[in-house]
Design a protein that fits this description.
One of its GO terms (molecular function) is nucleic acid binding. Keywords: Hydrolase, Metal-binding. It holds the Pfam family RVT_2. 17% of the residues lie in helices and 23% in strands. The chain has 2 domains: 60 residues, no CATH class; 143 residues, no CATH class. The chain has 242 residues and is of the alpha+beta class. The strands form 3 sheets. It has a 4-stranded antiparallel β-sheet with strand order 1-2-3-4. A 3-stranded antiparallel β-sheet has the order 5-9-8, with no helix packed on it. The protein has a two-stranded antiparallel ribbon with strand order 6-7. Strand 2 and strand 3 form a beta hairpin. The chain is flat and about 65 Å long.
Amino acid sequence: MTKKPFVGQSKLANGLLDLIHTDVCGPLNTQARGGFSYFITFTDDHSRYGYVYLMRYKSEAFESATAPERYGFLGVTGQLDNDPKTYGEAMSDIDSGKWLEAMKSEMDSMISNQVWTLVDRPKGVKPVGCKWVYKRKIGADGEVTTFKARLVAKGYTQRLGVDFEETFSPVAMAKSIWILLAIAAWYDYEIWQIDVNTVFLNGFVEEEIYMDQPEGLTTVGEEQKVCHLQTSIYGLKQASRS
C-alpha cells in the first residue's frame, strides 16, 4: 500500500464564498452585554475575512446565519490572517480598491517630495528592488479606520562598500530626554509632540542609488527605466542617517 504525498495549501478556494469555515464558541464564563454567552464565526477561505454573530443560546446557531440582524451581527471583523503581503494579494483582496487608493496616495507623497527621477538604467548597475507594505489601521471600536500602503526599498540587497559605507541607528539617549524634561519642568515649559508625515522622505542621499519602479504603478511608456533616488526612502541602509 502506497501513500500519496500530502500537498499543503494555505488556501483551498479559488474565489469568494467557494469555501466557508464555521465554528461555534461557548458558553463563555462571563456573559456579554445583552446576555450573549455564545458566538459563531464564519471565515471565507479565499479572502480570509471573518464574520461574527453573537448568540444567547447554542441552539440559535442556524438562525443566526439565516437572520443575522436578530442576533447582534458584528459585521466584517477584518482579515483573520495578516494583511496582504504582496501586490498580487492586495489586488485580489476584497478591499483591493482601498489598497489601490492607499498606493496612489503614497505615490503622490513621493512625487510631491521629488523622491526620484526616472532615468535609463546605467550599465553595470543593479537597481535596488522595492515592495509594497500594506496595513489596516484598526480603531478603538474594532472597525478599520485607515488603509495604508508604504513603498519600501529592499535595503537588505544593498552591499556594504558598494551601495553604502555605514549605517546609523536614530536612537535618542534616555539621559537626553530626562534633561529636556527637567528643563521644561523647571521653567514650566509646555511640551508638544508632533508626528511628521513621510519624515524619511525629507533627507537627501549622498550615494548614487537606483531603484526599480513600484509594482503596479510603473510609468506608462517608460517601464524599462529605473528610479534615480534623490531623497531617502523607507528600507534603505541610508534612511536612518537621513
